[in-house]
Amino acid sequence: MKITITGTVSHIGEFKQAGASEVREVVLHKMYHDPDTGALKGEDYYPVQIWKDRYIDFEKAYHTSAKLEIKGFVNGRKIEKDGKASHYLNLTGREFRPL
């Protein structure tokens, strides 16, 4: 499933080994304000995985506190351990655009 997320980069993690490649987590922060009063209603944090082959494009233009749009996809996985299943959802960034 394709996604588009907009926000401010609040954190850029270190590279982590993922199979034969590496992945880095970038967290986007988005605040929601009341349109009438301007008061802060809530905020969300979106951890987005960026694989090493795409991170080269990301690091040329973006940094912590940059406002941007990330396009990518959502994928889910199931991991079974000790007879119990856990389900995980990942957001993966493929394209980046400044706001």
List keywords for this structure.
5-stranded mixed beta barrel; 99 residues; mainly beta; 70% strand; 1 helix; globular; 6 strands; OB fold (Dihydrolipoamide Acetyltransferase, E2P)
CATH topology call: OB fold (Dihydrolipoamide Acetyltransferase, E2P)
CATH superfamily: Nucleic acid-binding proteins
Shape: globular
Gap between N and C termini: 23 Å
CATH class: Mainly Beta
Number of domains: 1
The helix/strand order is EEEEHEE
Helical residue percent band: 10-25%
Please, what is the average pLDDT? 91
How many beta-strand elements? 6
CATH architecture annotation: Beta Barrel
Report the major sheet: 5 strands, mixed, barrel
The main sheet orders its strands as 1-3-4-6-5
Number of helices, counting only DSSP H or I runs of 4 residues or more:
1
Poorly predicted residue ranges:
none
User: What portion of residues belong to β-strands?
Assistant: over 45%
Class from secondary-structure proportions = mainly beta
> In angstroms, what is the radius of gyration?
15 Å
Overview of this structure, please?
The protein is mainly beta and 99 residues long. It has one domain (2-98): OB fold (Dihydrolipoamide Acetyltransferase, E2P), CATH 2.40.50. It has one helix and six strands; from the N terminus they run ββββαββ. Strands 1-3-4-6-5 form a five-stranded mixed β-barrel. β2 (16-18) and β3 form a beta hairpin. The radius of gyration is 15 Å and the shape is globular. The two termini are 23 Å apart.
